[in-house]
Amino acid sequence: MPSEGIKVVADNRKAFHDYHIEDRVEAGIILTGTEIKSIRSGRVNLKDSYARLDNGEVWVHQMHISPYEQGNRYNHDPLRPRKLLLHRAEINKLIGKIQQQGLTLIPIKIYLKKGMAKVELAVGQGKKNYDKRQALAEREGKRDIERALRDRNKAY
């Protein structure tokens, strides 16, 4: 994805730890006025969020957008479900993938693109505990190798 005009507001790093990411889709999101102001100030959390298909529509649940500080009685509920905007063909493609065993929709990134809030959805399969340990061991091994090469190059 080109970085021109894109400001990443929040990442869901836990998703990469808990899921094997297979496919990604960009989706728009329907927001109220105070929600977009909170997102622009960076007050959003995707940690425990997930997306679900309901009646042919995609909804994101448990995405926490903090109430806007200057908002008064028009403030929003921080955890309300929010509708995502996708083309019908994209939704049908997601439905086909979700009906496979063990696949789920996870929001992995929320960003501003040309002033509009976008959510990057990923289709992922849950990792088992041994997969998580294996990934951690590989990451530590790479760090050890890089550290050894760096120390070796400093000696010369």
UniProtKB/TrEMBL annotation:
TM stretches of this protein: none
Cited SUPFAM superfamilies: Small protein B (SmpB)
Pfam families: SmpB
Coiled-coil regions listed in the entry: none
GO molecular function terms noted in the UniProt entry: RNA binding
Keyword annotations from UniProtKB, A to Z: Cytoplasm, RNA-binding
Domain of life from the UniProt record: Bacteria
One of the GO biological process terms: trans-translation-dependent protein tagging
One GO CC term on file: cytosol
Compartments, as annotated in UniProt: Cytoplasm
Role this protein plays: Required for rescue of stalled ribosomes mediated by trans-translation. Binds to transfer-messenger RNA (tmRNA), required for stable association of tmRNA with ribosomes. tmRNA and SmpB together mimic tRNA shape, replacing the anticodon stem-loop with SmpB. tmRNA is encoded by the ssrA gene; the 2 termini fold to resemble tRNA(Ala) and it encodes a 'tag peptide', a short internal open reading frame. During trans-translation Ala-aminoacylated tmRNA acts like a tRNA, entering the A-site of stalled ribosomes, displacing the stalled mRNA.
The family this protein is said to belong to: Belongs to the SmpB family.
Protein name as catalogued: SsrA-binding protein
Natural source organism: Desulfosporosinus lacus DSM 15449
Lineage of the organism: Bacteria, Bacillati, Bacillota, Clostridia, Eubacteriales
